[in-house]
Amino acid sequence: MKPLTTVQLKDLLGRLNSGDLIYLIGIGGCGMSGLANIFLDLGWRVAGSDLAANADIVELRERGAVIRIGHSEDHLVGIEPALVVFTPALAPDNAELVEVTKNNWPVGRRALVLSALTQFARSICVAGMHGKTTTSALLAYALKTMETGPAYSVGARVPQLKPHAAWAPGRLLEDSSDRSIVLETDESDGTLCEFRPHNAILLNVDADHLDYYADLDAVLADFKQFAGQTSGHLVYCADDPHLKELVASCPHTTSYGFSLAADYRCEIQTALPDAPTRFEVWHGERKLGGFSTRLIGVKNVSNATAVIALLHRSGFEAEQIAQAVASFKGVARRQQELFRDSRFRVFDDYGHHPEEITAVLTSLKRIASGRLLVAFQPHRYSRTQHLLADFAKSFSEVDQLWLAEIYSANEPVIPGITSDVLAAAIRSRGQSVDVVPNLLDLSAQIRAAMKPGDMVLFLGAGDITQVAHALAAQLREETHGRSDTLFSELKSRLSDESTVLKDEVLARRTTLRVGGKADIFIEPASEGELSAVLKFCNERQVPFVLIGRGSNLLIRDGGIRGCVISLSNPFFSRLTVEENRLICGAGVRLKMISIEARKHRLTGLEFLEGIPGSLGGSMRMNAGAMGSWLFDAIKKIRFMDYQGDVHERVASEVHVEYRGCPMFRNHIALGAVLEGVMSPEDVVRSRMDSYSRKRWESQPRQPSAGCIFKNPKAIGAGRLIDELGLKGTHVGGAVVSDIHGNFIVNDGTATAGDVLSLIDLIKERARTTRGIELETEVEILGEA
User: Fold this and answer.
1) Which CATH code fits 344-475?
2) What does the pLDDT look like over 506-564, one tens digit per residue?
3) Dist. CA 226–CA 246, nearest whole Å
4) Would you list the DSSP string of 167-189?
5) The domain over range 120-326 is classified in CATH as 3.40.1190.10
């Protein structure tokens, strides 16, 4: 079998007609399935085979591809492919490759076919030993977000790019100088130099893939040739010790990184656990802008800066770039969180080189609240042999470590190179490690060692990901089973008058109409039953949260673990009037308070008429409108501590602030006494009608959570968002209201993720264009 060259493949692809058949052997791999999606976009028929079905195969079948499981010459009977594509992971004696050779069909290596495709567009190649998958995905996503319609090929599944490879709109394969294709270029099999990019990003280079390359000098030679074949912008990392020398003779070079010498210099501003990392990028002496990324760690900030540098060099505005970078959520198997609850977090990562391992461990250790447990599957005997000492040093951040057997990736065994040898090298540094020969035993051993607060990380490029997903599934089942037990116990402690629901959808409990499920949802029927719920949660160490009528609340799509308590039972919604005082339960709607005040000719409470929600939640937020605040009208409060004991206090003794009452961060409002001023009926009616008319003229009627942001000192949030030109901006079904800029409304299809992405977009625009840090007023709860 003699595979076609890149030149021959370009000629063949250029002559294919719509409906011609391409057959892919090993079609389920990320690179091969990506090619299959591109072929389908171009109007060609696709068939192929692989050893096992996976999500990529399912999706390709849904698009019309004919895919068989297993490799057999029988799969090729009766077909006449215009081209056969194979992956280098196949053994030379693969039955289908043998049959292809017998039939003398045109055949091409995956990388060379991709290289040939890039010659029909302006290619942007991302190369480097580490980080190229995430970087190419971010670049493709950013260009797609900015509506340039690029083609792209990324070597992993990307939730925001479905599928992870696609051709540009138009379905035509012809030379085009105005079509871009973003692709991750692989150096592992020596095909890097087959690519002649228009623009390129060089992330890093070191001694890896020594099963193919003789040594580091051979690696550097290939990267130098690749750099020299780049005709346009060549963006490289100034922090890498090898790259500056490699690109010294190349024209149109641009450096990026943390180095003071970088053309595009990044500086991290804030890096808080479970929050986007904020950083600035400076272009020479000029601040390009403020940026943020949801990805964890300094390496991801560096890689994001590479994308920012290339896009800015290509003519895009910093503000556009910032919005795209901020909304990117990452790539599968790159710091991918598979499970999270109040006890544990489980991550899966593709890292299989010491540099990658050190980077991901440093990043996750920063956000871990407890121990970091790690299971690592070495990848290839040759890599383990050449980098043994570096691997042994990589796990210093780990609290407990397990090693699986080496994943060969079809590489021949090297005698004397085993996971036991690596374990011995790790132990020689004073660190304990367990070797687990059978992957089937790994999940059980890790689960037995886990304690509440632990973070678990699975590392490796092989099939260890299956163990990661299995443990995550087991933990979900445990959570579900524990939830069943807690539900039954709690229900037995409460009367039939209390509502206790399992897996309650919280979207219907909020005014924004988004959000996932609560494990257990409770509406206690009395203060005594509320006290019983709190004592139960304390006994069983069950987390709980309080919600009111669901206004001023955004619940994430993953829902809320543990118990959600709502004081919506009629017991907490009682309201009585004594002279000029209203004695109200926490569940009373503010609108009802204003109506009762009107009936009894009391002024001073009209501003409550249009504020959504109940008294209890509004006390926690010190809700206000039209220049008045709730605690201006409250004279006495009744509340419960988290141990279930009831207290009363004069309101003047309670500290309140703008949009908040700190005491209710760890106490539950049960009710309050409000006071109005006796006034003539026509005065009360006139004032209330005025407030009502003003509110409904200035606020949207679609589902919303109320005001999203607190007002900055310099300008009202609504006015700021209006001046930024963001009214009408949407992410999915979440839309900035045309009526009031500080409202995000749900068009009926929004998810919590849509709303959160739109919030991030608004924050980023305010930060980069006006230097204003917007702070959310809406309370955000739950899991992603």
Assistant:
1) 3.90.190.20
2) 999 999 999 999 999 999 999 999 999 999 999 888 889 998 778 889 999 989 988 99
3) 10
4) PPTT---S--SS-EEEEEPP-TT
5) yes
